[in-house]
Specification:
- It is globular, with a radius of gyration of 21 Å.
- By secondary structure, it is an alpha/beta fold.
- Strands 2-3-4-1-5 form a five-stranded parallel beta sheet, sandwiched between helices. A five-stranded mixed beta sheet has the order 6-12-11-10-9.
- It is built from 13 helices and twelve strands.
Length: 394
């Protein structure tokens, strides 16, 4: 190990924490030590493969994603441009489905350079750059014909090309198709020498927890255990419960109950005229919303809970709209226990996408946030949603 490089990584991450007004707790500090060793192995001139990656899991709000992101920013300076790549789980599967579709409609000709050798990576959306233009994706996996195996591996190789360190943020599995794609991605990545860093609320063995389908995820779980060290970050404090560290982006949002005109005005918001509507399009689909406008130099999306969650919207729409609107105002949010299971899961996904994209969320609801959080349905990842909502002012 190279002590100066280890110290440089640690100082960079600790300085990032200091800029945001906090210091690492002992559990986070111990994880940083392990991350710094990973960075040293990746950046060393005498790198001897294979370098083992890291799978960090634990309860929501303990700082897993923040630490991994700060580490990635620090270590990226030691690697070729674009070789350290972060992708959130929703973006991962969106990019893979789009790339597989592209392979199906237009076979790529000519030799491909080896993956994992540095250079820009195509296909991932990151916070630092605008989304990459994509072809029209296929419909939901269960409604689409199974793409030929060659197309899947070719699409994965294209998305991995140029990547040395791949950071999979908030890895979770609840769909068998996603589990199969993850296995294929991991296999191709490890064959190419790509090192994987993952954060998750789930221990690897609990991915795709449905006992009827868990066996589909087992090959991918075996790959994770074979190539990554599993580390738990389970400190006693959910730091989101202490309030947002910053007052911008997602943490600059609010939960307003009951959402009066005065409450909105206090945040510089003016509700659209009663009965007003607008339409927004995502690829070939069009959706009615309350308003889609510019206000105070910011793009705003106003949409009722019913229009957002009770209609068949999907993460494809949420990811698209998150790049187009800097502030979302979701009105008339009920207790999730008073809605159907599909609506529950859609709202959970909205919070996930907006938090990851750092887009401001303002909620109006007849219920206080404590009441909303206390009436949780038995839905995957609801616990993570409630932790994130603690960042909103009330």
């Amino acid at each position: 190990m190279t002590r100066p490089r280890l110290d440089r990584t640690r100082r960079a991450v600790e300085a990032a924490a200091s800029r945001e007004g906090f210091a690492l707790d002992p559990d986070q500090s111990a994880l940083l030590d392990r991350l710094a060793r990973l960075g040293d192995e990746l950046s060393g001139t005498r790198r001897r493969p294979p370098v083992r990656g890291l799978y960090v899991w634990g309860p929501a709000g303990r700082g897993k994603s923040w630490l991994a992101g700060a580490f990635l920013a620090a270590v990226a300076t030691e690697l070729p441009a674009g070789a350290a790549t972060r992708v959130h789980v929703y973006d991962l599967f969106r990019a893979l489905h789009a790339a597989i579709h592209a392979q199906r409609v237009s076979a790529l000709a000519g030799p491909r350079s080896a993956v994992g050798q540095g250079g820009p990576t195509r296909g991932w959306r990151t916070r630092a750059s605008a989304p990459v233009a994509e072809p029209t994706p296929p419909g939901p996996p269960e409604e689409s014909p199974e793409p030929r195996p060659g197309a899947v591996d070719a699409a994965i190789d294209d998305l991995l090309r140029g990547t040395t360190l791949l950071y999979l943020d908030e890895l979770h599995l609840h769909d068998t198709g996603d589990a199969t794609l993850l296995t294929r991605l991991l296999r191709r990545a490890f064959e190419a020498g790509v090192v994987v860093l993952a954060t998750s609320n789930d221990e690897p063995g609990t991915l795709l927890p449905n006992p009827l389908w868990h066996h589909v995820a087992e090959p991918g779980i075996a790959l994770l255990r074979a190539h990554l060290d599993v580390v738990e970050l389970a400190g006693p404090t959910d730091y989101r419960a202490l309030g947002g560290r910053g007052r911008g982006g997602f943490a600059g949002g609010a939960w307003l109950s009951p959402g009066t005109t005065a409450q909105l005005a206090a945040r510089g918001l003016v509700a659209p005229a009663p009965g007003s509507t607008a339409t927004i399009s995502t690829r070939t689909r069009t959706f009615a919303v309350t308003a889609a406008r510019e206000a105070g130099g910011r793009s705003e999306l106003w949409v009722t809970f019913d229009d957002l969650a009770t209609r068949p919207t999907s993460t494809l729409e949420y990811l698209d709209w998150a790049t187009r609107f800097a502030r979302w105002v979701v009105t008339d949010v009920p207790l999730l226990t008073d809605t159907d299971r599909e609506s529950q899961q859609r709202f959970i996904a909205v919070v996930d996408v907006l938090a990851d994209a750092d887009v401001e969320l303002v909620v109006t609801s007849p219920h206080r946030l404590a009441a909303f959080r206390g009436a949780l349905p038995d839905r995957p990842d609801a616990f993570r949603m409630t932790s994130r909502l603690l960042l909103l002012a009330e």
